[in-house]
Each structure stands twice: as structure tokens, then as C-alpha cells.
Amino acid sequence: MANLGVNIDHVATIRQARGTQYPDPVEAAVLAQLGGADQITVHLREDRRHIIDRDVRLLRSILQVPLNLEMACTAEMIRIALEVKPDMVTLVPEKREERTTEGGLDVAGQMGSLTDAVRALQSAQIPCSLFIEPESSAVDATLRTGASMVEFHTGRYSEVAGAEQNKELQRISAACAYAFSKGIAPHAGHGLNYRNVTPVAVIPHMQDLNIGHSIVARAVLVGLERAVREMKELIRRP
Ligand code: PXP
Question: In which domain, by residue range, is 220 found?
Fold first, then answer.
């Protein structure tokens, strides 16, 4: 049964839009925990457009659930991760040339830098996940970097409907089974919402789902704790 990682970046987006101290993503993380979040995910971007360094440090010290730090594969981010020591790191593309055509990391094209980053982080006991397309070739490339987890990009699944969506679901499901057979823990995320999450949540071996936009959007109307609780229900009791 999949765990729910709640991505709180968009709470910080609202704060940064006005340069205020509120809403505080750290307070949001506490409410998400109360709602049943199994993990908190934040993306520290190079331009600090939402989450800032202070958020990551405070989250590290107050969270009772694991902290998943999403970040680009850069020297600055690796230095911060080694200092803050999140429970895991997910390496994501930030620049166009780091992506495959669809959107996940171009692992084969960045093999050297990704392998170095994974080695540096994992030797400091920070397990690494790579955000990739749901393809066996991307899983094979991930294996070569030494990363212990993958997060499959569900962006395309969330954008299409009907037969196309079923096809995407099969692609994610096959990639998940393949990763698991190779000893890599499969996660998924991007664009998952209250209407499309269940078929992904019931894919065998799926370990974590990272969900941000739909939960924070619902939270504006019903409150964060309830929004997280409702998502968790869909994942745990489909
Ligand atoms: N997983 C990864 C690697 C992401 O970069 C994002 C978006 O920041 C998400 C999951 C969450 O996507 P969404 O906000 O669409 O739920």
C-alpha cells in the first residue's frame, strides 16, 4: 500500500508572492502530518522561488515524518543536502537540457554527474531517488548510478484521458514492476489529484506517491489537514 508524501512547495509560493512571513510551509507541514502525511516533500530550487533554505532546516528539526528533499544535481544543492541530512533526496531536472523529451531526468545523458551525486549522498546515508520517465531503459540507467529508488513521472498520465490514460497507466505499472524486480523502490508523482490517484495508488509495489498542487489547492477551500486526510483515504482505501 502506497505512502503519501505531501509536497508543500505551493504554500511557500503564496508566501513568496508577497514577500511576507506567511503562510509558513513549516506550519503547513505540521498540519499535513496531522492529516496523515507519511512524508513531507519540498523542492529547494536554485532560484528559491518558493521553498527557501530556512524552511528546509526548520523542517529537518521539527518533522516527525521523513523529509524528502527534491533538488537539482548541482554542487550547491549537494552541499546543502549533506549539511541538512534529509531522510532522502530526489534528484530532479531543473533545466531543459537535463530532461528527456517528456520531462523526467535524462539519466543516460547525465550519467557522470548523477553517479557522483548519488555516491556522495548515499555514502553519507542519504538514500537517493531519481525522477524519471516510466521506462525500463530509464530504470536501467538509474541502476547504473547506484540510486536506490526512482520516482516515475506521472505528468503524462494526468494530462490524458480514456484509452490514452489506460495506456499510460500500463506503462507506469510495467515500469514499477521492472524497478521492483531490479531491487529499486518505485515511487510516483506529478499531476496526481483526487480524481486520478486511485489507479496509480493500487499499482503493485508502488511505495510512495508525492502529491502537491491538488492537495494545496483543495486546502484553500477545506483546510490542509482535511485535504491531506481525504487524499490519504483515496490511497489507503481505494
Ligand atoms: N514529484 C516531483 C519530483 C515533483 O517535482 C513534483 C512537483 O514539484 C511533484 C512530485 C508533485 O507534483 P504536483 O504538485 O503536480 O502534485
Answer: 3-235
**Closest residue CA from atom 1 of ligand 1:** 189
Q: What is the average pLDDT score of the chain?
A: 97
Residue 43 annotated in active site = yes
In the block, cell 531536472 appears at: 93
- Probe residue for ligand 1, chosen from 6, 210, 218 as the CB with the greatest number of ligand atoms within 8 Å: 210
Q: Which CATH number fits the domain that encloses residue 156?
A: 3.20.20.70
User: For 153, phi and psi rounded to 5 degrees?
Assistant: -75, 115
Active-site residue, 70 included = yes
Stretch 93-108: mean pLDDT, rounded? Answer: 90
What integer is the mean pLDDT of 53-77?
98
pTM above 0.90, yes or no: yes
pLDDT at 101: 75
- What pLDDT, on a 0 to 100 scale, did the predictor assign at position 26? 98
Residue from 39, 70, 149, 159 whose mutation best tests the ligand 1 pocket (most atoms within 8 A of CB)? 70
Q: Is the CB of 190 under 6 A from ligand 1?
A: yes
**Is 213 a pocket residue for ligand 1 (Cβ < 6 Å)?**
yes
DSSP string, 48-108: -SS--HHHHHHHHHH-SS-EEEEE-S-HHHHHHHHHH--SEEEE---SGGGB-SSSSB-TG
> What percentage of the chain exceeds 70 in pLDDT?
100
Domain count, the chain: 1
